[in-house]
Design goal:
Helix content is 38%, strand content 15%. It is α/β, with parallel strands linked by helices. The chain has a single domain, classed as Glycerol-3-phosphate (1)-acyltransferase, CATH 3.40.1130.10. Helix 5 packs across helix 7. The radius of gyration is 16 Å and the shape is globular. 40% of the residues are buried.
Length: 219
């Protein structure tokens, strides 16, 4: 077994015990090929929660400050994390992510950019949409419910809480061309957050998973 697989098995066992972790809609994750997963972000727990329920090994972006912490830096690097600066556009992180997608990897990003309150979706920053529109890879929306209760911002340690990770049908965005690229990025950002919001609404109402979504057509 790889280091990732060993750590995933340990993490999932712990998270099932502490958070009664449940995954839904995993069948929407393509088995192979480049893939972008876009998720809401309420807690430090979100990367391992999504990674634990995903059927593929994930590459993900983490705030650059975490790579300055001894021990944690070594761990997250060996789990496939790359640093990203949050105080403005980080072209190095963007190019690194594009290379990962070109190599056929599955990459997890959080369009909101930073953690927010449980159950509150905020507008997306442009990075995720830029990746989706420039690469044309499938985009799987993800909604994590309960992580903000399990380890909210400002709390020193996590606490037991029910957590559910729901994966939605893939979206696909046409590659950006011409002078309309900015509008394409904005539309893609809205569509991503709308898809995450749909998963949130269905999770809140107890309605079953949706069927395949029609690909977004941007003109």
């Amino acid at each position: 077994m790889t280091f990732y697989a060993v750590m995933k098995a340990i993490a999932v066992a712990i998270m099932r015990l502490l958070f009664r972790l449940e995954g839904r809609g995993m069948e929407h994750i393509p088995e192979t090929g480049p893939l972008l997963l876009v998720a809401n972000h309420s807690s430090f727990l979100d990367p391992p929660l999504v990674g634990g329920m995903a059927s593929r090994q994930l590459t993900f972006l983490a705030k650059a400050e975490l790579f300055k912490i001894p021990g944690l830096s070594w761990l997250i690097r060996h789990l496939g994390a790359y640093p990203v600066k949050r105080d403005g556009p980080d072209m190095t992180a963007l190019r690194t992510t594009q290379r990962a997608l070109a190599e056929g990897r599955a990459v997890l990003v959080f369009p909101e950019g930073t953690r927010g309150a449980e159950g509150v979706l905020r507008p997306a920053k442009p990075g995720a949409a830029l990746l989706a529109v420039q690469t044309g890879v499938p985009v799987v929306p993800v909604y994590v419910s309960g992580s903000g209760r399990a380890w909210p911002r400002g709390r020193r340690l996590p606490r037991p809480a029910k957590v559910v990770v729901t994966f939605g049908p893939p979206l696909r965005f046409p590659r950006a061309v011409g002078p309309q690229r900015k509008a394409q990025y904005e539309t893609a950002s809205r569509e991503m957050m709308a898809a995450i919001g749909e998963l949130k609404d269905r999770a809140s109402s107890g309605v079953g998973m949706p069927g395949a979504r029609r690909p977004l057509q941007i003109h």
